[in-house]
Write the structure tokens for this entry.
Amino acid sequence: MSTVHTEIVTPAGKVYAGDVHMVSVRATSGEMGILPRHMPIVAPLEIAMVRLKHEDEQTVDYAAVHGGFIQVAPDQITILSEAAEMKDQIDVERAQRAQAEAQEALNTLHESSKGYHEALLKLKRSELRLKVAALRDPVKQG
Amino acid sequence: MLSMRDIKEQISSKKQMRKITKAMQMVSSAKLNRAQTDAQSYKAYADKLHEMVGSIASAQCNRGGKHPMLETRPVKKTAYLVVTAERGLAGAYNNNVLKYTQQLIEEKHQSKEEYTIIVTGKVGLQFFQKRNIPVIYSKIGLPDLLRFDDVIDVAKTAITLYSDKKIDELHLIYNHFVNAITQSLVDSKLLPLTDIDGEQSADKKVRYEYEPDEAEVLDRLLPLYAEGQIYGALLDAKAAEHAARASAMRNSSDNASKIIDDLTLSFNRARQASITQEITEIIGGAAALE
């Protein structure tokens, strides 16, 4: 089975680099699953989970990617984001704290007030982190 | 002439000082190492982003449509993002940037309406406040080891000001890290983005599809790019700061050593003189008794 070289790049460095068989992301226009030899495409991403399926169809790596872009070139896939973590790099405590803070901010702020949007994004990010971190061992999930 | 006791006191105080400057030098060198690694890992991201922006921007230009961030508009108000340190003791690091900015403003602008300052670092903020120069946004307390999260609000603010048309140009003024002993001043125009066209070299002719369409991708990509540039500049400036501080502290340690040497010499002379005097006195006393 064929693979494609995939990288997740953030300002803090490469979070992931390796050969995978399929990359599933959620772009702003919808879910995308990208296999090797996909046509060249650039798409903005949502704050969502990215799945990297390996060659054996069994092992899957999960990453929390907070916005950014996916760029599919003929020979490689690059995910560019201002923030991204692999499942095992997620700081659960910090995410929980962030979630609580964001929730509190949302409760006190009105929808039209300044900072509401930021708080909403913060909540989204922390929820994603928690969700990804809480996933069970990918192999058992089948 | 100083008494022996005075000299002794001076020597010990200089030694204390040297201890401190030496420690600061070592701390800065260690931080410089970290800052350099950070800059390296950032480079991978910057290169990728640059490539992406270059390819899409040139495709857009060919079609005639222009994104507001790429378009040069008549300049009514210029913003300068000035990067300084949180504290001094870094040689000419802060002074270079601040002096340059002040001169630039005096040369280019007649009234306070025409420019504004975005500043990071306590030193810079105090400088501008004292001189009544308008500061629209300031960020103090940036940690020594920068992460993207620390910078995001500065970057976002600057870009929002631009897209809201409160400012028509954004310049970055900071110290660029050349190597451990050299820093050079950089004044670069960040917005509007003008230098990304024509990046396309002949061998990189991949035609990308844009999803959902080019304009929307550009809308998201350009702010990301500009934020990345600001982060890069701040990282660069941090590395330069640590380098400047390390070399300033090395110089002061060297100077302290020199002063200590001189003082030790005069201390020995004074001691010798007092011994000689004692001997003469004893001999004189003995001769008087005979």
